[in-house]
Amino acid sequence: MNIRSILLPLLLLLSSLVALAKSPAKTYCDYAIKQCDLIEQRLPDFTSVAEVVAQRHLKGGVIGFAPANYQPLGEEMTGRAGGMVNLGFDRVWTTVRTAEQKANDVALIGWERPPGPNELAQMQELKKQGMYIIGFGPKAMPELAEHVKLCDAFFDTGKVDDRVVMLPDGSKAGRSNHMINALQGWVFIAELVSALTRQGKMPTMWKSYFCADGLEWGDKYFRKKQFHDDYTVAPIAAGILGKAYLTQMRGIISQFKQSQLKTVDKAVSIFYRQAKAGKKTLILTYGHMPYLYIGKYEDARWAKLVDFQVPQQLPALQAEKPEGLPVLRLGYYGDKPELKEALRSQKMRLIYIGADNPREGWQVPEERELYINMGIPFGDACVPIKDYPIALFPPSGIMQIVAYESVNVEMLAKLAKK
Q1: According to the 3-state scheme, what is the secondary structure of the chain?
Q2: Do 176 and 203 belong together in one domain?
């Protein structure tokens, strides 16, 4: 018996013991950071696809999400602060387009789970139209085999079984495909923006509506301008913006892991007592992606989705009779005054996931019992570029996933213990 045959099993055992010693939330955060590293290693792939898309966009091609598949990526990237204004087939800068322009259209489609029954036929029709299709998701998923063949480019999440955390009973939890898709989606947009600057163009970009002048900024460009004629941005080299975004994300996730997991533990203790009493915790969602992933996987054991983004959704919350119960608000930058008042009226025990907002009346509700701070900069977008007045590319959607999954895997780990 050689030394290698002795050491290898010992190293594997040590690795398993280290993994078990790490908390589920830390495991998920570390996995998210690792994905930033892996994507950065593949930056040239994103750049090369972005350069193809940039040429098509310069020729009048629209970049949108098709077919509509009710999975998170399209929702994450449409109309986001720091994203492109003209991203979406219904968000075009002109009402008149030639056949040649339409022939340069680009479709993005993301999967975290198997496709719907009509998606393949819809993709086949897009190919007949000359559409350039970019896929995001688990490339090896058997249900996607024919769909992948129709894609001109594909950004792989690397895992069909995307559960990150091993629980005490041997089961797994902590979904990640939607998180990786979002990271890859924004890295692609970062490289697309820089590719366009190398062609002398700066695309119009969204400013957060949480900013006092966000609506005014958007009104200047939405369905009006493809490229800026009021700001000039010097050419940005390949890889610079994609790397800058990943650097920001690593820092934000690391800071969250270091500063917020004790508060996560406190929240989990509250939700656990509620679960043991036979009641699910209401998850009040705000934003683009959460309503498409909350309660769809292992978290359904303890969590129940109530989307709450406008006052008109208050009756659905009232129907749950939340008075006196702990609820989790999965939010952004505090809440609009009318939403804060609606939350206050229900007299709930509010555990809040969000970020700071300096605007008077828009802050995180004062009545919260716990505040899990995602640590994202106000205005959302996090990558500044020279000679452009707003930062680009948002971390909030990804950090909502990281924060929620941190709570989720800790909850499921407690529930899995005998």
Answers
A1: CCHHHHHHHHHHHHHHHHHHHCCHHHHHHHHHHHHHHHHHHCHHHHHHHHHHHHHHHHCCCCEEECCCCCCHHHHHHCCCCCCECCECCCCCCCCCCCHHHHCCCEEEEECCCCCCCCHHHHHHHHHHCCCEEEEEECCCCHHHHHHHHCCCEEEECCCCCCCCEECCCCCEECCCHHHHHHHHHHHHHHHHHHHHHCCCCCECECCCCCCCCHHHHHHHHCCCCCECCCCCCCCCCCCHHHHHHHHHHHHHHHHHHHHHHHHHHHHHHHHHHHHHCCCCEEEEECCCCHHHCCCCCHHHHCEEEEECCCHHHHHHHHCCCCCCCEEEEEEEEECCHHHHHHHHHCCCEEEEEEECCCCCCCCCCCCCCEEEECCCCCCCCCECCCCCCCCECCCHHHHHHHHHHHHHHHHHHHHHCC
A2: yes
Shared domain check, 210 and 70 = yes
Residue 246 lies in a domain: no
Quick: pLDDT tens for 197-225: 999 999 999 999 999 999 999 999 999 99
User: What whole-number distance in Å separates Cα of residue 178 and Cα of residue 160?
Assistant: 12
Asked whether residue 182 falls in the same domain as residue 310, the answer is: no
Residue 301 burial (CB count, 10 A): 15
State residue 22's pLDDT score: 86
Residue 187 located in a structural domain: yes
Last residue of one domain, picked from the residues 240, 270, 289: 240
Range of the domain at 193: 19-240
Quick one: 154 and 33 in the same domain?
Answer: yes
The answer to the question of residue 248 being in a domain is no
Distance CA 332, CA 209 (A): 11
**Is 211 inside any structural domain?**
yes
Check whether residue 347 and residue 400 sit in a common domain. yes
Number of domains in the chain: 2
Q: Which of 178, 205, 240 is the last residue of a domain?
A: 240
Report the C-alpha gap between 181 and 113 in whole angstroms: 12
Q: What is the pLDDT of residues 22-72, one digit of tens each?
A: 899 999 999 999 999 999 999 999 999 999 999 999 999 999 999 988 999
> Which CATH number goes with the domain that contains 366?
3.40.50.10490
